[in-house]
Protein backbone atom coordinates (compact mmCIF):
# COMPACT_ATOMS: atom_id res chain seq x y z
CA UNK A 1 0.00 0.00 0.00
CA UNK A 2 2.89 2.40 0.56
CA UNK A 3 3.72 2.29 -3.16
CA UNK A 4 0.18 3.43 -4.00
CA UNK A 5 0.41 6.24 -1.46
CA UNK A 6 3.79 7.27 -2.93
CA UNK A 7 2.20 7.40 -6.37
CA UNK A 8 -0.78 9.41 -5.14
CA UNK A 9 1.39 11.79 -3.13
CA UNK A 10 3.59 12.41 -6.18
CA UNK A 11 0.53 13.11 -8.32
CA UNK A 12 -0.74 15.56 -5.71
CA UNK A 13 2.66 17.25 -5.57
CA UNK A 14 2.78 17.61 -9.36
CA UNK A 15 -0.79 18.93 -9.41
CA UNK A 16 0.07 21.49 -6.72
CA UNK A 17 3.07 22.70 -8.76
CA UNK A 18 0.76 23.29 -11.72
CA UNK A 19 -1.84 25.11 -9.61
CA UNK A 20 0.78 27.34 -8.01
CA UNK A 21 2.27 28.16 -11.38
CA UNK A 22 5.69 26.72 -10.56
CA UNK A 23 5.48 24.36 -13.51
CA UNK A 24 3.32 24.11 -16.58
CA UNK A 25 1.46 20.93 -17.54
CA UNK A 26 4.16 19.78 -20.01
CA UNK A 27 6.88 20.03 -17.37
CA UNK A 28 4.76 18.08 -14.90
CA UNK A 29 4.04 15.42 -17.53
CA UNK A 30 7.76 15.12 -18.30
CA UNK A 31 8.61 14.83 -14.62
CA UNK A 32 5.88 12.26 -14.10
CA UNK A 33 7.05 10.21 -17.10
CA UNK A 34 10.65 10.25 -15.84
CA UNK A 35 9.53 9.21 -12.37
CA UNK A 36 7.42 6.36 -13.79
CA UNK A 37 10.32 5.14 -15.97
CA UNK A 38 12.67 5.12 -12.98
CA UNK A 39 10.12 3.21 -10.93
CA UNK A 40 9.57 0.74 -13.76
CA UNK A 41 13.29 0.08 -14.13
CA UNK A 42 13.69 -0.43 -10.39
CA UNK A 43 10.77 -2.85 -10.40
CA UNK A 44 12.23 -4.74 -13.38
CA UNK A 45 15.58 -5.16 -11.60
CA UNK A 46 13.87 -6.42 -8.43
CA UNK A 47 11.78 -8.94 -10.39
CA UNK A 48 14.80 -10.22 -12.33
CA UNK A 49 16.78 -10.66 -9.11
CA UNK A 50 13.93 -12.53 -7.42
CA UNK A 51 13.38 -14.81 -10.42
CA UNK A 52 17.10 -15.62 -10.64
CA UNK A 53 17.26 -16.35 -6.90
CA UNK A 54 14.18 -18.60 -7.06
CA UNK A 55 15.40 -20.47 -10.12
CA UNK A 56 18.81 -21.13 -8.58
CA UNK A 57 17.12 -22.45 -5.41
CA UNK A 58 15.21 -24.94 -7.56
CA UNK A 59 18.48 -26.21 -9.04
CA UNK A 60 18.04 -25.00 -12.60
CA UNK A 61 21.00 -23.78 -14.65
CA UNK A 62 21.21 -21.04 -17.22
CA UNK A 63 21.14 -21.96 -20.90
CA UNK A 64 24.70 -20.67 -21.41
CA UNK A 65 26.05 -22.78 -18.54
CA UNK A 66 24.26 -25.85 -19.92
CA UNK A 67 25.66 -25.37 -23.42
CA UNK A 68 29.20 -24.91 -22.05
CA UNK A 69 28.96 -28.13 -20.04
CA UNK A 70 27.50 -29.95 -23.03
CA UNK A 71 30.49 -28.93 -25.17
CA UNK A 72 32.92 -29.93 -22.44
CA UNK A 73 31.35 -33.38 -22.10
CA UNK A 74 31.47 -33.86 -25.87
CA UNK A 75 35.16 -32.94 -25.97
CA UNK A 76 35.90 -35.29 -23.06
CA UNK A 77 34.11 -38.13 -24.83
CA UNK A 78 36.19 -37.56 -27.95
CA UNK A 79 39.40 -37.62 -25.90
CA UNK A 80 38.56 -40.85 -24.07
CA UNK A 81 37.46 -42.73 -27.19
CA UNK A 82 40.90 -42.21 -28.78
CA UNK A 83 42.76 -43.32 -25.66
CA UNK A 84 40.62 -46.38 -24.98
CA UNK A 85 41.28 -47.94 -28.39
CA UNK A 86 45.06 -48.29 -27.77
CA UNK A 87 45.19 -50.08 -24.38
CA UNK A 88 42.71 -52.79 -25.40
CA UNK A 89 45.20 -54.81 -27.51
CA UNK A 90 47.77 -54.70 -24.70
CA UNK A 91 45.31 -56.29 -22.30
CA UNK A 92 44.67 -59.09 -24.78
CA UNK A 93 48.41 -59.78 -24.95
CA UNK A 94 48.71 -60.06 -21.19
CA UNK A 95 45.75 -62.43 -21.06
CA UNK A 96 47.40 -64.59 -23.72
CA UNK A 97 50.70 -64.59 -21.81
CA UNK A 98 48.96 -65.62 -18.60
CA UNK A 99 47.12 -68.39 -20.45
CA UNK A 100 50.37 -69.65 -22.00
CA UNK A 101 52.11 -69.69 -18.60
CA UNK A 102 49.22 -71.57 -17.05
CA UNK A 103 49.30 -74.10 -19.90
CA UNK A 104 53.05 -74.61 -19.46
CA UNK A 105 52.65 -75.17 -15.72
CA UNK A 106 49.90 -77.67 -16.32
CA UNK A 107 52.05 -79.51 -18.86
CA UNK A 108 55.01 -79.63 -16.44
CA UNK A 109 52.79 -81.07 -13.69
CA UNK A 110 51.55 -83.80 -16.04
CA UNK A 111 55.09 -84.69 -17.10
CA UNK A 112 56.24 -84.83 -13.44
CA UNK A 113 53.48 -87.26 -12.49
In short:
This protein has 113 residues and is an all-alpha fold. The chain has helices at 2-20, 25-58, 63-85, 87-112. The model has no long low-confidence stretch (mean pLDDT 77).
Secondary structure elements and pairings:
Elements: H1 2-20, H2 25-58, H3 63-85, H4 87-112
Helix pairs in contact: 1-2
Structure description:
- By secondary structure, the protein is an all-alpha fold.
- It contains four helices and no strands.
- The chain has helices at 2-20, 25-58, 63-85, 87-112.
What features would you highlight for this structure?
113 residues, mainly alpha, 0% strand
What is the terminal separation in angstroms? Answer: 103 Å
**Total of DSSP H or I helical runs spanning 4+ residues:** 4
Structural class: mainly alpha
Largest sheet: none
How much helicity do the residues have? Answer: over 70%
Rounded mean pLDDT score: 77
Residue runs with pLDDT of under 50 for 5 or more positions: none
* Rg of Cα set: 39 Å
| Percent of residues in beta strands | under 5%
Shape, principal axes of CA atoms: rod-shaped
Amino acid sequence: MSKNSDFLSNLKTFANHVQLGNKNAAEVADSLNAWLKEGGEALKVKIEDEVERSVSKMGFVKRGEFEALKQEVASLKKGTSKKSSKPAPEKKKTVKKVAKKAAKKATKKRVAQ
